[in-house]
Amino acid sequence: MPEPFILRTQDLTKEFKGFVAVRGVSLQVRAGEIHALIGPNGAGKTTCFNLLTHFLTPTEGRIFFKGREITGASPAAIARMGLVRSFQISAVFPHLSVLENVRIALQRKRGASFDFWRSERALDALNPRARELIDAVGLTEYAEAIAVELPYGRKRALEIATTLALDPEMMLLDEPTAGMTHEDVERISALIKRVAANRTVLMVEHNLSVVEHLSDRITVLARGEVIAEGDYASVSRNPDVVQAYLGTAHA
Questions:
Q1: Which of 29, 84, 220, 243 has its CA 20 to 30 A from that of 232?
Q2: Can 1-77+171-177+199-251 and 83-167 be said to share one CATH topology?
Q3: Which of 224, 183, 174 has the alpha carbon at shortest distance from 201?
Q4: What pLDDT does 190 receive?
Q5: Pick the CATH number of 83-167 from 3.20.20.450, 3.40.50.300, 3.40.1410.10, 2.60.120.330
Q6: What are the pLDDT digits (tens) for 85-117?
Q7: Distance between CA atoms of 38 and 16, rounded to whole angstroms?
Q8: Domain 1-77+171-177+199-251 -> CATH class
């Protein structure tokens, strides 16, 4: 039987000098789904993301991707396996154009050093694929714009384009709609739904309407531990979840 979960963890724990930020988290993400990781501030969501991509080393526990244990692998090696967290390659170059940023991300996929020394003609060979990605995230009219001049929501779209340039099987998105206007939230939500059509997405997201609209499955953390899991309807009625968010359970 093939492994039904593209990503899973066993008893993942992270302790910082006596403070346990994540405790015994066993997460299971099915291939092809949008899985949301939610919880109140300080729940351990971002720490979990950092553990999954090994920007932090687990104190205890194991991580598996596509049936292979990746505990202890480097962030770069994990990205090459197809598990990509958006910020890993989306620290956008502010003074390059949208097209140039995506083209650099496409070079990274080859695993070679960046080709800043190569002729413009050689780099232009990457333009068709770069423009496809730019079109896919709705930035066609901004292709020649300088990244630093983009509106905030468009910058987030550029970050997703540079992530997609690595052709990941699974994307980890940390609060993709944070700080956005209503219009931008709708645009990025639609973009996430499109890019998830042929890949798996795990996202941390505070906007519960986005979570409700996009997620196939939800894991809820509180104080570093999983307190609920399921679809939006079931977790939103869970008394432990209500208490974690509101400080009181239903009567």
A1: 84
A2: yes
A3: 174
A4: 92
A5: 3.40.50.300
A6: 876 444 688 999 999 999 988 887 655 545 554
A7: 21
A8: alpha beta
190/224 Cα distance (integer angstroms): 30
What's the angle, vertex CA 162, arms to CA 160 and CA 163, rounded to 5? 60
Residue 26 carries which DSSP code? -
pTM: 0.88
Kindly tell me the sign of the dihedral angle through the C-alpha atoms of 111, 117, 121, 127.
positive
DSSP string, 198-242: GSEEEEE-S-HHHHHHH-SEEEEEETTEEEEEE-HHHHHH-HHHH
Beta-carbon contacts of residue 209 (< 8 Å; ≥ 6 apart)? none
Grouping H, G, I as helix, E, B as strand and the rest as coil, residue 113 is: coil
Q: Which residues of the chain have pLDDT under 50?
A: 88-90, 113, 117, 248-251
List the chain domain ranges. Answer: 1-77+171-177+199-251, 83-167
Of 193, 201, 191, 196, give the one whose Cα is nearest residue 171. 201
Q: Cα Rg for the chain, rounded, in angstroms? A: 19
- As a whole number, the mean pLDDT across the chain is 88
Q: How many residues does the chain have?
A: 251
Say which residues have a Cβ less than 8 Å from residue 63's Cβ, sequence separation at least 6: 7, 8, 9, 12, 51, 52, 69, 70, 71
